[in-house]
Specification:
By secondary structure, the chain is an alpha+beta fold. It has a single domain, classed as 2-Layer Sandwich (Nonspecific Lipid-transfer Protein, Chain A). The chain contains seven helices and seven strands. The strands form two sheets. It has a five-stranded mixed beta sheet. It has a two-stranded antiparallel ribbon with strand order 1-2. Strand 3 and strand 4 form a beta hairpin. The longest helix has 30 residues. It starts with a strand and ends with a helix. About 3% of the residues have low confidence.
């Protein structure tokens, strides 16, 4: 909201903060969706978890009611792929009840487990699949985030994760995420 003070126009912080939170959550939702897809291609533990989902299983994460979201599908060869437009109702949807709740998780002020415990998220679908998805997200976050941030983001940081595994996993995931953004950019310019 912009107020006219007669001399200058002042932008209200009440309108800026939600807009910045929305932009941040939208970016993070996209990065997490892409990161999860790429992690399912390079990390053995995540590959094993994704292999336990049925083929054509559709999962999503979103902010209620119509906020940022990603939708992914388990392919026939048990890898994840992002879906752009889908009329199909996902088999599993993890929903943040409010933009502020998503911001808390995506800014590493609260872990996914804490958000569930504080009733900030809803799992619509089979609980065992929701737990499997959270395990995949936790492993991906442990790989791609610096250890200090990852310890805030996940319930329990994996003690068996070596620095070599972390660095090579993160490098592979970030490279694949960057390639996916570059590919999207190139297809838009055609």
């Amino acid at each position: 909201m912009i107020y006219n003070t007669g001399i200058q126009r002042v932008i209200s912080t009440k309108s800026v903060k939600p807009a910045l939170q929305l932009a941040y959550v939208k970016l993070m939702m996209d990065v997490i969706g892409r990161g999860l897809v790429m992690a399912s291609q390079v990390d053995e533990e995540i590959k094993q978890e994704v292999a336990k989902f049925p083929s054509n299983f559709v999962l999503s994460m979103k902010v209620f009611p119509n906020g940022p979201a990603f939708v992914a599908k388990v392919t026939a060869d048990h890898q994840l792929e992002l879906l752009q437009n889908t009329a199909q109702k996902p088999d599993l949807t993890i929903t943040f009840k409010h933009l502020n709740h998503a911001f808390l998780v995506f800014s590493f002020q609260e872990s996914t487990a804490q958000a569930f415990a504080h009733d900030r998220m809803i799992a619509d679908g089979d609980v065992s699949y929701a737990i499997r998805l959270v395990r995949c997200l936790n492993k991906m976050e442990a790989l791609i985030l610096p250890k200090l941030l990852a310890e805030l983001a996940v319930k329990q940081y994996p003690t068996e994760l070596s620095l070599k595994e972390k660095l090579s996993g993160a490098a592979n995931i970030y490279l694949k995420v960057a390639q996916s953004y570059f590919k999207r950019l190139c297809t838009r310019q055609k």
